[in-house]
Structures are given as structure tokens and as C-alpha cells.
């Protein structure tokens, strides 16, 4: 499986692994992932091996000897055995280039289905998959076409997160995922502040993870003066998966960690402001996940409060 990035897309693509494992018991499944995301495929018990790719780092030092040495080692690693099928799920030229380094029949989306039509030149077999489908379904259909199995029914992830250490408070906790790669995907900070205070008033702790300096500052502003609001140290992706898997609820913008929370089975509210949840929403994961908003439609505070309350009331209690 070649889907190096991004975080949310890797999460969606991982849904095909359960189909493959069910239809082809004993199949050895390897996954190429950007080194920042290697913890994601590792959450699946069906993935035998994760092959790290450092393309993002190599781009910043293309002339260094170390870059070429690491690239040569990657090429040896990805080509060390012959595969029955190589699934190019990246939809970009970079995925095609990586696929060509592996040995086996390469399968990808056809020209009408793919984001970058030029990338089809790198694949041996092309599959027509409607572009309007959710990305998880598109990946499942590509895998089904390549390997000859069915992918009927809703996607399943079967992810297993590690045991959390230190990030979860003692009381029931809600994780707030306010950060995203584009400012246009953000939700008003005043709304977050009110939401976090409401969680505290209801007796919940709130955990506000962060990835960059600006995100940390926002987490600290949202947590200031709020009882049981925690801004943890910067977490690894594996630690964040552990945190999300044990949370009572996750509320987040359209970002990879929000999609990961839903895939882990955590009750999740996803806030969309500029993208269409039909193509990459969390509701596809099951009744425990809700999509709010959409392209140009920003959910209100009342919308998010109502969805969060409904999921919390519906969640099973020990």
C-alpha cells in the first residue's frame, strides 16, 4: 500500500486493510508512509511492516550525501520482495514514483478518477472509481478491484491504540482538536472557549493537544481559568492515538486527528467550514461520529453543543 500522506487520508485509506484481511486471510500487508505518519499504519494489527519514507525531509536537503544514502536504503527496502499487488493510493506523481520502486503489478486510479492524471503513467492497471465518493470508499473499491474481493457494507478500521501514559486526567476527559493546516478551516476561538467552559461545568476535563507554537498558545488561551483543562506537552502520534482512544468525546475541526478519533471508535464531532464532509467526513465511521457544516457553512456554537451532548448521552457507560 502506497499512501505516504497526509494524516487524515492515511486514516481513511487504512479502512481497506480490514477488507483485505477478511477476504485474504494470512495476506502480508506492507505500507509506505511518510516518517511523520509511520505510527498510523502500525495501529492496524493486519499491517505486517511499515516502510518509512522521508520525502518531505529529503526535499529540504536534496544535495546532501545523507539524503542520497537514505534514499538508496529506502529503494532497497521497498524492493526487497515481490508483491502480488502494489496499490498506489496517493493520486499524485510522488506516489507513482514510489510505486515504481516496488516490485509487482501496480494498481491505481484511472485518469478520470485521479487527482493528478500524469500519475497514471506509473501504474500498470487502472481502476475507475467515482471521484464523488468518500475517500475511504474510493480506497476500498480500488483494493477490491485489484485483489478481486467485495467491499460491501460500511468501512471498518480495527485499529488498536497503545495504552495512554500521562496525558489523560483522572476524571472523564474530552479532547478538543482546534488546530488545522489552514486558517480557513478554523472555528472561532470564542466558540471554543464557551464550549470548553461548558464541558468543565458538566464535570469533564478537557485536553487540548497542540503541534506548533501558535497552536500551543491557542490551547493555553482556551484552557486559561477553566477547571480541569489540560494543555499537555507535545505528543507523538502514537500517544495522541492512545489519548483519543480513551477519551469520552473528541471535538475537532477538519483535521487528521479528528478523523483518527472517529476511526478509533471514539464519539466524535467534526466541524467543517470550507470542505464537503461527503468526501472526507467522519460520519462514515458509524453512528458515534457526526459531521457538522460544510463548504462555506460554518456550524454554530449551538450546533456543536447539541451534537456533543447527544453523543455523550448515547455513549455506553461502564
Give me a quick take on this structure.
The chain is an alpha/beta fold. It has helices at 7-13, 15-23, 55-58, 65-78, 93-101, 135-147, 189-201, 213-223, 237-246, 256-263, 277-280, 301-314, and strands at residues 29-34, 47-53, 82-87, 103-109, 125-127, 173-177, 205-207, 229-230, 249-253, 268-272, 289-293. The protein is built from twelve helices and eleven strands.
Task: Summarize the structure in words.
The chain has helices at 7-13, 15-23, 55-58, 65-78, 93-101, 135-147, 189-201, 213-223, 237-246, 256-263, 277-280, 301-314, and strands at residues 29-34, 47-53, 82-87, 103-109, 125-127, 173-177, 205-207, 229-230, 249-253, 268-272, 289-293. It has 318 residues and is an alpha/beta fold. A 6-stranded parallel β-sheet has the order 8-7-6-9-10-11, with helices on both faces. The chain has a 3-stranded parallel β-sheet with strand order 3-4-5, with helices on both faces. Helix 1 packs parallel to helix 10, helix 2 packs parallel to helix 6 and helix 7 (189-201) crosses helix 8 (213-223). The radius of gyration is 20 Å and the shape is globular. 42% of the residues are buried. The mean pLDDT is 95.
- What is the string of helix and strand elements? HHEEHHEHEEHEHEHEHEHEHEH
Nearest-integer average pLDDT: 95
Number of strands: 11
Biggest sheet statistics: 6 strands, parallel
Gyration radius over CA? 20 Å
What proportion of the residues form beta strands (DSSP E)? 15-25%
Placed side by side, the strands forming the largest sheet appear as: 8-7-6-9-10-11
Count of discrete alpha- or pi-helical segments spanning 4 or more residues: 12
- Which overall shape is indicated by the principal axes computed on the Cα atoms? globular
Alpha-carbon distance between the two ends = 38 Å
- What ranges have pLDDT less than 50 throughout 5 or more consecutive residues? none
User: Which structural class do the helices and strands define?
Assistant: alpha/beta
* Helical content class: 25-40%
